[in-house]
Amino acid sequence: MGAGKTTLGEALADALGRPLVDVDHQIEQEEPISQIFATAGEAEFRRRETAQVLDALAASSPSVLALGGGAVETDAIRTGLRDRALTILVEVEPAEAWRRVGGSERPLAQDEDLFHRLFEQRRPLYDHAADGRAHDVESAILVAGGTHVETGALERLGELVPGSGPVEVISDARVAGIYGMDVQLALGSRARAQHELPPGERAKTVESLEALWRGLRLDRLGSLVALGGGCTTDVAGFAAATYLRGIDWVAVPTTLVGQVDAAIGGKTAIDIPEGKNLIGAFHWPERTVIDPGTLATLPEQELANGRAELVKTGLLAGEKLWELPLEHQVRRAAAFKTAVCLRDPHDRGQRAQLNLGHTFAHALEAAAGYELPHGRAVALGLLAALRLSGLDTKAVEETLRPEPLRVDRERAWAALERDKKAVGGAPRLVLLDAPGKPRIGVEVPPADVRAALDELIAG
Ligand SMILES: NC(=O)c1ccc[n+]([C@@H]2O[C@H](COP(=O)([O-])OP(=O)(O)OC[C@H]3O[C@@H](n4cnc5c(N)ncnc54)[C@H](O)[C@@H]3O)[C@@H](O)[C@H]2O)c1
Ligand SMILES: [Zn+2]
């Protein structure tokens, strides 16, 4: 009571594109709650509440459900929540809650002593029902997506990997050398074998995947931990999706690209000679554990790759993310990507906005024979997307300092045309009506696209 569930529920429903079902509000539609308490008693109110909650939980499409403070006292509701919902406890100090609702028309907020006693009585039920805790919409989104951001999280990995079964860890040699031992210690008696991947994109091959499949010893109760950059989480996530027809995994991204992008949203993949990321699966990790502290050892070049995705995210969100302290940038960007992916988990619509600037970036990477750092290509791609959107390019120029590239123009154009043919017909791009207002599938005249691409190329 008085924790702000309705306000937070509205904001969360909006962020996730789901309807809000406010149980108390629905009951009020039939009859004022104070009147139900006065004439038929609390038991009748609980009966109506239970019916509403079970109805909402049985619905086939997902919603955000705001529960009254006493709902968890009903067994059937607790069981329903456990089976059908992810439950977030909105924390509030009892004194603060009383300040907000004490003496209001709420039947159970009439007497301060009773209010506090009720709170103490319910507290263990709240603790038991809660899958996570939140105090604002950002933390609620993170809980909903299983994204955990905390400096020092690596040391608590034993608690943060859900369940109590055995854990095998996958990483590349460099990351294993820096963090492998800490992770083994943190996992304690749950730790089993460690597996090592070849460096970089070479991890994402059929051969290295086969080595994982054959090396894993987990049963269905075990979990995989993917510790490293996007290459590690992509292939380890795919191994988890396919081994024994799918086991749980936890992504522990240690690059900025991984923390704000690759390790969030459940896309896993490997490459084949015909193209990057062509083979994969949607397999959402049980949790993504982000420890921004691990960025301290990341080389500048790798940070720059992540910064380009951060600026992309800031443009999509309409926030100057890049002006925040790094840890806050990571948290905001991770929450943004989590929300987009929860709205569109299988990439059938709005998730395409995350490709802002990437049509151009991929064309430049192809023209450079994939010798170009992704962040440099994305910085240029963002520049082109902003120009075609008719928007100011200053933010990208000042934060990413993109330099025109020396590549073959015809080769870049051919790659871009091939890319867009793959989706059929005219060039369709992600553009911005304004920062924070992305528009997907915008048709742009080929000559304008070509001109924008040419502007990114030197000489
Ligand atoms: N699944 C998705 O949604 C998604 C999204 C974006 C990108 N990706 C994929 O991610 C991959 C790129 O990921 P990346 O940029 O993280 O590259 P990466 O995984 O190759 O890591 C980059 C380098 O940094 C090193 N490293 C990692 N963490 C470190 C640390 N804390 N300290 C020191 N060194 C560290 C690694 O050993 C590696 O050499 C691409 O294959 C791309 O396709 C996937
Ligand atoms: Zn990218």
Keywords:
459 residues; alpha/beta; six-stranded parallel sheet; two-stranded parallel sheet; 14 strands; 50% helix; globular; binds nicotinamide-adenine-dinucleotide; binds zinc ion
Cα radius of gyration in angstroms: 25 Å
Helix fraction? 40-55%
Estimate what percentage of residues fall within beta strands. 15-25%
Number of helices: 20
Quaternary structure state of the chains depicted: single chain
Taken from the alpha-carbon principal axes, the silhouette is globular
Structural class: alpha/beta
Mean pLDDT: 95
Which hetero ligands occur in this complex? nicotinamide-adenine-dinucleotide, zinc ion
Low-confidence stretches: none
For the biggest sheet, the summary is: 6 strands, parallel
Side by side, the strands of the main sheet go 5-12-9-8-6-7
User: Terminal Cα separation, in Å?
Assistant: 66 Å
Number of β-strand runs: 14
Question: In summary, what is this structure?
Answer:
With 459 residues, this protein is α/β, with parallel strands linked by helices.
Describe the structure.
This protein has helices at residues 5-16, 23-30, 33-39, 42-58, 75-84, 94-101, 112-129, 137-145, 157-160, 173-187, 206-215, 230-242, 256-262, 300-317, 326-343, 358-367, 374-389, 394-400, 409-421, 446-454, and strands spanning 20-22, 64-66, 88-90, 132-134, 147-149, 167-172, 191-197, 223-228, 248-253, 267-272, 275-282, 287-290, 428-434, 437-443. By secondary structure, it is α/β, with parallel strands linked by helices. The strands form five sheets. A six-stranded parallel sheet has the order 5-12-9-8-6-7, sandwiched between helices. It has a two-stranded parallel ribbon with strand order 1-2. Helix 1 (5-16) crosses helix 8. It is globular. Zinc ion is lined by residues 309, 358, 374, 378.
